[in-house]
Backbone:
């Protein structure tokens, strides 16, 4: 059994900063790609940022230069640091991970954490 548990998020004013963290636990052989997605009300879930096990990253154009994804392979964690937040960043943020369990890769999702950017 594998779980992704998110923490962080909350309410922040425009221009502020916030971070969210994700920790994977369970019968993990290896974690490949980890990422953060978000879903705003009435919109489709979209990729925000992703990072490979080797540290290569990619970002949505809307967050480039403002958000930074990082991971600690020894702790099975991935963090998303969000700076210069805008109201349009308001969404539920979901952790995603491609995890090898007993030799097979599966995709897992966290339960989601709310990020609200408002004055």
Residues:
């Amino acid at each position: 059994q594998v779980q992704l548990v998110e923490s962080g998020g909350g309410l922040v004013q425009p221009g502020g900063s916030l971070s969210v963290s994700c920790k994977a636990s369970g019968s993990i052989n290896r974690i490949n790609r980890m990422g953060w997605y978000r879903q705003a009300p009435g919109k489709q879930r979209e990729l925000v940022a992703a990072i490979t096990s080797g540290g290569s990253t990619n970002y949505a154009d809307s967050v480039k230069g403002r958000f930074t994804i990082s991971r600690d392979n020894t702790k099975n964690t991935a963090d998303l640091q969000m700076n210069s937040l805008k109201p349009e960043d308001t969404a539920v943020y979901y952790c995603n991970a491609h995890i090898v369990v007993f030799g097979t890769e599966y995709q897992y999702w966290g339960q989601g954490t709310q990020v609200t950017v408002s004055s």
Observations:
- The mean pLDDT is 97.
- The CA atoms of residues 14 and 86 lie 5 Å apart.
